[in-house]
């Protein structure tokens, strides 16, 4: 079920009144679990079994792990959680990828192993809920969290529909305490929730989807376009993926607020970052913090000297790239970010970088933002390309620059989308809140702006098929 579809509004229109009417905490949570499974099963009901298996295993593992102080038993229980969750994820997401890679080697020896391929449908959001439930058992193993004894609460933690299929990847220590209380949204949460949903829909539909039409058409026919046109497509993809994913996160947070639940912010104006380290503290925050806490630190972090620190950064980002998809293009994307972070760490030394607001707008800050954006833009090529042939054709067309009679048109369109993206980000950045529309003092103006954004989005939704969110494939 897509957030940017009318069926979702029907779903929400049924869920919310029933949820508000239910009298007890337990009845509300049971209903939300049922609604979440319906939401997830709307794509393919068979995948609900995978969600249930992960839930049952990690609930039991968490309780057993907490009950024993035996180190070997605790490690064994953690291994069960890791093997079960990563085994399911690995089979559905990476089986054919590794078969393809192995087949490339065997073909050189004259062997053909096509029969090893299986027809596997990737369950929507499997990477997200796998990481979320793993954080629960790992935190219990590290004695940073006590397990919940309420199975319904844990089932809701794993399956909560607003963030189930594309995050944010919530931690149990942040979400479970909220689920243990009776969910009752206040007036402020409802206001913020409505604003976030409208803003998220606008970003996704009016910016992400419309930019995506240019991107898809050009990348599917690269050989027909000139250099400036394909460069415009890459820049527009950077706009598309940001609007698409941040739009989803806004809608997820807004929907959760309508249910009385606070989800973490997943984006903090990443294209205003002044260096690559800051970018990863502003982009997909729930994933980058997960990789840091459960992978980078587990590898040793920065505790074993500079060289090992750089290796740990590289390994973390390589695996982060592979998390995004079973393709060498994603591995290269992660490797480039790992290289960027390692080089920046090398020059940074022991100095800490925080994702804080700029003291002032000056040439140095603007220049740093531009350079960071360019570095990130290079990596987006490998993220968007569907094959190595596409990547090499793109690069060759940039190297062998071809003039275009449509240069002005493509530059104008690209600048227009960048302007819209940065305008919304600057408003968030300066107000330090995603719900900056609520700061408008005039209720009439506030309602007028919000209504206009929603109406424009609805008109577009009537005219076009709802486009899936890019991160659904992960």
Low-confidence stretches: none
| Strand residue percentage | under 5%
Oligomeric assembly: single chain
Order of helices and strands: HHHHHHHHHHHHHHHHH
Mean of pLDDT: 90
What does this structure look like?
This is Membrane-bound O-acyltransferase family protein. One of its GO terms (cellular component) is plasma membrane. It is a multi-pass membrane protein. Keywords: Acyltransferase, Cell membrane, Membrane, Transferase, Transmembrane, Transmembrane helix. With 474 residues, the protein is mostly helical. It folds into two domains: 6-103 and 110-183, no CATH class; 188-274 and 358-473, no CATH class. 68% of the residues lie in helices and 0% in strands. The protein has helices at 6-21, 25-41, 48-67, 71-107, 126-141, 151-159, 172-179, 187-219, 227-258, 276-279, 285-296, 306-324, 328-348, 363-384, 388-399, 407-431, 443-463. The protein starts with 5 loop residues before the first helix and ends in an 11-residue tail after the last helix. The model has no long low-confidence stretch (mean pLDDT 90).
